[in-house]
Structure formats: structure tokens, C-alpha cells
Write a structure and sequence with these properties.
The protein has two domains: 5-124, Tetrapyrrole methylase, N-terminal domain (Cobalt-precorrin-4 Transmethylase, domain 1, 3-Layer(aba) Sandwich); 129-218, Methyltransferase, Cobalt-precorrin-4 Transmethylase, Domain 2 (2-Layer Sandwich), CATH 3.30.950.10. It contains six helices and eleven strands. The chain is an alpha/beta fold. Strands 1, 2, 3, 4, 5 and 6 form a six-stranded mixed beta sheet that branches.
Amino acid sequence: MDGMLYAVGVGPGDPDLLTLKAVKVLEKADIIACPAKENKPGIAYTIASQACPAILSKETLTLDFPMSKGNLNDAHNSAADKIIDELRSGKNVVFLTLGDPGFYSTFSYISDRIKKSGYNIEIINGIPSFCAAAAKIGCSIAEGEEPVLITTGEYVPFAGTLIIMKAGSRLKELKAEIKNSGKAAYLIENCGMQGEAVYYDVDSIPEKAGYFSIIIVKPSHN
């Protein structure tokens, strides 16, 4: 009998934010698959292992996904093939991903390949980083019929709440655009992780920050 693939979102960084369902799936998994660098399990594995130490004794399948914007088809196909080999042998595999598997996740690049090969996938959703970031600053993302727009590294004039993901590399430009808009903004860097930093106004936001940086822009009356 073929194995089952589970995509598990580990949340934004705090191990306490893994769901109970995620932990139960991790406990029964045969193999833990995760993005890695130089064959060393990455951040998602570190977070999951703190919430569920049982995975430390399980077989780990490390998958290399280069951090570049070029053609990554070879890397995605290789990762899918490695997972399929384990499923074919009857093993249940958990693929770990930061945040949620359906939100800017590496998993989305390989899931279609695995489905087309006839294997079943169950997605265990995680807490998205922007939800944790909003909770960190005590901010409501939206109220009533207020709209929400999510972008990556881009400021867009918008009447509701604007969430800018992966903002770290463009902070100087983003700060200028937000100041011109007259709106309120917050920066949350490394939410729930080591090195977490929170900035509560545009002027205090630095001009450089790491990859895991989120800006929440709110209408000034909020």
C-alpha cells in the first residue's frame, strides 16, 4: 500500500503556535521531509522539533530549494521524485513548511507533481505569519467590511489594510511611499523567532531588515 503525504504548516516561528493536529501528524509520520541547506534541515524543522521532539528520532529527508528567482524546475522535480520514492515504499511522509502550506509556500511547487503521480495529499494548515504579526502588535487586521490586500515587497495605494510580505529588501522605498500616504505602519521582523523586532511607526522602521519581515499598513484613523 502506498504511503500518504502530509503538508504541515509549522506557523510563523513560535513552536507553541503549531496546532494540535500538526503535532499528532508529526508523531505518526515515518519520514520528515523539509527544505534544507547543505543537507542540514532548515528553520521549519527546528521549529517543529521544539513542538514535537519525537521527530528527532525519525528519518529525515532533506530537500534542497535554492533561494533564487531563476528556473527551479529541476530542484522541484528532484524533491517530488524523492518524496514519491518514499510514498511508493509505503511510508507516510510529512513535508514541513513555514507558516501555511498554501501561502507563499515551497510545497505548492511540488504538490501538483505528486498528485499527478497518483498519491494522496492532506494539508494541515498553519498560522500565517501576518496573523501572528498582527497579534504581536495588538492590531486588528480588518473590521466590518474593511478590505485587506496582501503584496510581496510592494506598496499599493489601498483603502483598507495593506500587508506587505517579504519587505526587508525594499524598506527604504517602502518607508518613503508609506510616509507620503500619511498612513500608519508597523514592521515585524522575525515574528516568533530569535531576533524578533517590532517597530510601531514609520519613522522608527530601519532601512534594512531580514527576509522574514512584514509591514502592516493601516488607515491613519486606526
